[in-house]
Specification:
3-stranded antiparallel β-sheet; globular
């Protein structure tokens, strides 16, 4: 009798174990469950075709934290003492993205300047304007009735200010830094993956001019880097093509594999300035006011609560940010309640917000990507809102090849303030705006230039029924100043002030900056507040931080895909 019971229990145990095993195998990797063609990874490899990637998810780029996206109310200002009426509440959906923990510091920006000076030396006539186009305006510290010459001479380069946020940087310069950072991060990734050799350590070549690593150029045609010098590469990724027995054995250390593609998921996404919606969402960090699927309360600052001082604990009464506390009062009384800085202060001096971001209220205001308009047009778009799109495509030459800027044809732009900037650095891919033919019968866009869409373009003026080709001059809803330029016989561009009366400073070159600074009163610490400045100008209270896109799921807490249940 005991034997029969034991036998039945054993059968039951084995049955349960079998069911659990089957279900476990079925759910082990839902991504690889089904092949719509019947080809498995081994079949694909035999045909020289890439199989399923071993991609394990995106890692946070250096110095960045994940900002999990969601819905929030943009605007919702509690005070409007300026009566701008440019922050009316609108609900927006924000996609997940990564953002720098802190503003870009002087030490990080100096690395950028040193790199630019080394690769594009100023004493070479081909690159004579490149380095100076990147240098911040250190004279922003000057005041006609102030004694700040020490700061003009030391703030950027002295080690005492190394961890302070860089200032004197225009919106254009901040974008140039983001592009450069993309290439340096991806260059480091390829070196760490054993695909690219450390370029500055090679005796056989010089990293100069067009001979530098550029992400776009690499993805377009890796063999074009360094004039096709393959010695810059190691073995590469494992080749999809099996080597035949009769093939000669490759020399040691030579490139025998394949290059990285976007589909490998190895390279970092492009770094950029955050959009205004992203920046405000990250600064408000409404996640700490979440109650189930709702938010409770209204946040006035980047931290929780509506006061600028610590309410409890050892540091009760101390300021929570670096800002101007009153007329002639930039730091407070010495000792207690002193915010620690008369100008800027080193990053991470104050506690981060709920997303782990430092100084989203105070220290320096920050550039964002958007062109300024008084109204956020949520009726047109309430998903990843951004004003400033100019859609482009890679420039193709007559032979059908992508054009890469070389050392001898560097093109420059002269800005309204007289500064000269390169249109494209040597070694980078050239882009051109899309044409009407490219946008033919598109349902989502009709042209390349969409900066003034629904607010400044022809369709939003009284001449909406006209065609742009019928007009001698394009109408300007925002009658902002334009500086006329006179070109002398020598080709010198002479700048002149605009003498016409204007009704606004808003233009297609006016960029938004957010957040309060060391120079601002408490009112501007509210992340909802908006201000603007021409993209080519710089101040001693505006800095920036970078962002990049989150690829794949919104959060690290991935929800597992559902699978078909097994029936028995």
């Amino acid at each position: 009798m005991n034997f029969k019971i034991f036998k039945n229990i054993s059968k039951l145990f084995l049955s349960v174990l079998l069911v659990v095993t089957v279900i476990g195998c079925h759910n082990r990797n839902p991504r690889n469950n089904v092949s719509l063609t019947g080809w498995n990874d081994k079949d694909k490899a035999a045909g020289g075709i890439a199989g399923d990637s071993k991609y394990k998810g995106q890692e946070a780029p250096p110095g960045m934290v994940l900002i999990e996206g969601g819905s929030f109310t943009m605007g919702q200002v509690q005070d409007d003492v300026m009566f701008d009426w440019n922050t009316t509440p609108v609900t927006q959906q924000v996609r997940s993205f990564y953002m720098d923990e802190t503003e870009v510091t002087n030490s990080e920006y100096l690395f950028y300047l040193d790199y630019i000076e080394k690769v594009f030396p100023r004493n070479d006539v081909n690159y004579e304007h490149i380095y100076m186009s990147a240098v911040p305006d250190t004279l922003v510290w000057r005041d006609v009735l102030g004694f700040n010459e020490l700061l003009t001479e030391n703030y950027l380069r002295h080690p005492g200010y190394a961890d302070y946020p860089v200032i004197g940087v225009s919106w254009i310069q901040a974008n140039q830094y983001c592009n450069w950072r993309t290439d340096r991060v991806n260059e480091r990734i390829l070196v760490d993956k054993g695909i690219l050799k450390p370029l500055f350590r090679l005796d056989s070549l010089e990293v100069k001019g067009q001979n530098n690593f550029n992400t776009d150029a690499y993805l377009t045609n890796p063999s074009k880097l360094f004039d096709g010098d393959s010695t810059i590469y190691r073995k590469g990724l494992p080749s999809l093509e099996p080597r035949s027995k009769g093939d000669a054995r490759p020399s040691r250390g030579s490139f025998t594999g394949r290059h990285v593609k976007v589909s490998d998921g190895i390279l970092s996404a492009r770094f950029r300035l955050p959009t205004e919606v992203e920046w405000e969402f990250a600064a408000k960090a409404v996640v700490e006011d979440r109650e189930y699927n709702n938010t409770r309360g209204r946040k006035k600052y980047a931290w929780k609560g509506k006061y600028t001082r610590t309410k409890t604990g050892k540091y009760q009464g101390d300021q929570l940010a670096n800002f101007k506390q009153g007329q002639g009062d930039y730091s407070g009384v010495p000792g207690w309640s002193n915010d620690g800085a008369d100008i800027t202060i080193q990053v991470k001096s104050y506690d981060p917000n709920a997303f782990g971001l430092y100084d989203m209220s105070g220290n320096v205001a920050e550039w964002v990507a958007d062109v300024y308009r008084p109204i956020i047009d949520s009726e047109a778009n309430d998903f990843s809102y951004f004003r400033g799109n100019i859609f482009t495509k890679k420039l193709i030459d007559q032979d059908g090849r992508v054009v890469i800027a070389d050392d001898f044809s560097v093109e420059y732009d002269t800005l309204d303030n007289g500064n000269i900037i390169p249109k494209a650095l040597p070694g980078s891919v050239k882009y051109t705006p899309v044409t009407k033919r490219d946008a033919y019968m598109k349902t989502n866009y009709e042209k390349a230039f969409n900066v003034d869409s629904r607010d400044g373009d022809l369709a939003s003026t009284k001449l909406y029924a006209k065609n742009e080709d019928e007009l001698e001059t394009k109408p300007r809803m925002y009658n902002s100043p334009i500086k006329p330029k006179e070109i002398g016989e020598s080709g010198l561009i002479i700048q002149q002030y605009d003498t016409d009366k204007r009704t606004t400073l808003i233009s297609d070159k006016s960029r938004v900056y957010k957040g309060g600074s060391w120079k601002d009163r408490e009112y501007w610490l509210d992340p909802s507040q908006r201000r603007y400045l021409p993209e080519y100008m710089a101040t001693n209270y505006i800095g920036f931080r970078c962002a990049t896109d989150r690829i794949g799921p919104m959060t690290y807490k991935r929800r597992k895909p559902t699978t078909t249940k097994v029936r028995y």
